[in-house]
Write a structure and sequence with these properties.
The chain is of the alpha+beta class and 402 residues long. The chain folds into two domains: 215 residues, 3-Layer(aba) Sandwich (Rossmann fold), CATH 3.40.50.300; 126 residues, Nucleic acid-binding proteins (OB fold (Dihydrolipoamide Acetyltransferase, E2P)). The protein is 22% helix and 32% strand. The strands form four sheets. A six-stranded mixed beta sheet has the order 6-7-8-3-9-10, sandwiched between helices. The radius of gyration is 24 Å and the shape is elongated. The two termini are 25 Å apart. The protein binds adenosine-5'-triphosphate and magnesium ion (MG). The site of adenosine-5'-triphosphate has 11 residues, from strand 2 and helix 2.
Length: 402
């Protein structure tokens, strides 16, 4: 039976840009940004549909804030095009773009009350007082800060200040909301609360949101799609589970997931059909299904990836894929993280930086440091990456774990 389905992956930026219909809320076309000789954005293409919650992640300095600022009009682009609801705003003044941006630093005016801060954008736009008051009250109700309206920012907690900053964005009824790490100044409990509130705010307003964060949990839980950035370029775009289960390359695989995926250098022992058997010193051979596009030969060196939660401790040494000695145990209550010294089987760019293998056990365990341990890998959980360009060459995995 032949498969006539075109091999299109919706998480590839080049297919995303093709989706240009009336529902496209924000369209970025080949955005380039240079700061002098420094090339901060290297041809960003992205189409965001009306009502989507896009979360951008990437290492520090990769260009996330720069991109948000160019969308907001706070930075000019060197070349490319920005469209909001089909309107070219590439060179439009920030106030005319129909966007509102919320910063990590809140950026509230200290001498104004909460109500004045929230109504500021509308006052600048010379809207009538009754309209401003109504918009402020509506936003304050949504954010549950109606009793704080006469206070000044310094009389508020961090979480309340952040709500005011979000409220200031809401009153302007923007077509697109931009958030740059809005929760990173808050403590863990407040972050969780605000995360839930932002998700319900998004559901209530149905607005298009673009949100930058360093927080894996925020990215995985809030996003309709995640955009992974690196060095001013997009590495991959897709739903959280799609990116987690089917990272396009080694960078995305290593970036999403905490603790990080374990990576090992392996060699191809043999190929049979679309299955490659790989091994290395200290590791029993694993037969891994290859992607249709993969071109792999016996003797090739590859990088193998396995997530910490896909390693299981086995008591029968005959069932172990590799063995080692526990160096450190972290009891997190609901789960336990083990760092295992697997001798010759060294982890490259491991979580701990020591070459130890990270193992995540979904329960409390009595395993103690210095214990000998056997670990089993199910070859269906294994990822293979080309050692040249880092592209994923193992077969796609179903989004739901087997
Ligand atoms: N005004 C500027 N002039 C020169 N270089 C700049 C300017 N603003 C940003 N850059 C550089 O552009 C790159 C991207 O910066 P950006 O602030 O967008 O990173 P980021 O992804 O938001 O990082 P972080 O996660 O740390 O906030 C950095 O290398 C930064 O040094
Ligand atoms: Mg930033």
């Amino acid at each position: 039976m032949t498969n006539h389905q075109p091999q299109i992956s919706l998480d590839r930026p080049e297919t995303v840009i093709a989706k240009q219909d009336a529902m496209t809320s924000l369209q970025l076309r080949q955005i380039q940004k240079n700061y002098g000789a420094y090339h901060a954005l290297r041809g960003i293409d992205l189409a965001v549909e009306q009502g989507e919650f896009i979360v951008m992640v990437g290492p520090s300095g990769c260009g996330k804030s720069t991109l948000l600022k160019t969308i907001a009009g706070l930075e000019t682009i060197t070349s490319g095009q920005i469209l909001i609801n089909g309107r070219d705003v590439s060179h439009t003044e920030p106030g005319e773009r129909g966007i509102a941006m919320v910063f990590q630093s809140y950026a509230l005016y200290p001498h104004m009350t909460v109500a004045e801060n929230m109504g500021f954008g509308l006052r600048m736009a010379h809207r009538p007082k009754a309209e401003i008051d109504a918009a402020v009250m509506r936003a304050a109700k949504i954010l549950r800060i109606t009793d704080q309206l006469d206070k000044r920012p310094k009389q508020l907690s961090g979480g309340q200040r952040q709500r005011v900053a979000i409220g200031r964005a809401i009153t302007r009824s923007p077509e697109v909301f931009l958030f740059d790490e809005p929760l990173s100044n808050l403590d863990a409990a407040l972050r969780t609360q605000m995360r839930v509130e932002l998700s319900s705010l998004h559901a209530k307003l149905g607005a298009t949101m673009v949100y930058v964060t360093h927080d894996q949990v925020e990215a995985m839980t809030m996003a309709s799609r995640i955009v992974v950035f690196n060095h001013g370029s997009i590495e991959q775009v897709g739903s959280p589970l799609e990116l987690y289960r089917n990272p396009a390359n080694l960078f995305v695989a290593g970036f999403l997931g905490a603790p990080r995926m374990n990576f090992f250098e392996v060699m191809v022992d043999s190929i049979s059909g679309r299955t490659a058997t790989v091994s290395t010193a200290g590791l029993m051979p694993l037969a891994v299904e290859l992607a249709d596009s993969a071109s792999v030969q016996k003797g090739d060196k590859l990088t193998m990836g396995i997530r910490p939660e896909n390693l299981s401790a086995v008591s029968d040494p005959a069932k172990a894929t590799f063995a080692g000695q526990v160096r450190l145990v972290e009891h997190l209550g609901r789960e336990t993280i083990l760092y295992v010294d697997a001798g010759q089987l060294q982890c490259v760019s491991s979580e701990s930086g020591t070459g130890n293998v990270t193992v995540q056990i979904g329960h409390v365990t009595s395993v103690a440091a210095e214990a000998a341990i056997g670990l089993r890998i199910d070859s269906r959980d294994v990822y293979l990456f080309s050692s040249g360009d880092g592209r994923t060459i193992s077969a796609r995995k179903s989004i739901l774990a087997d």
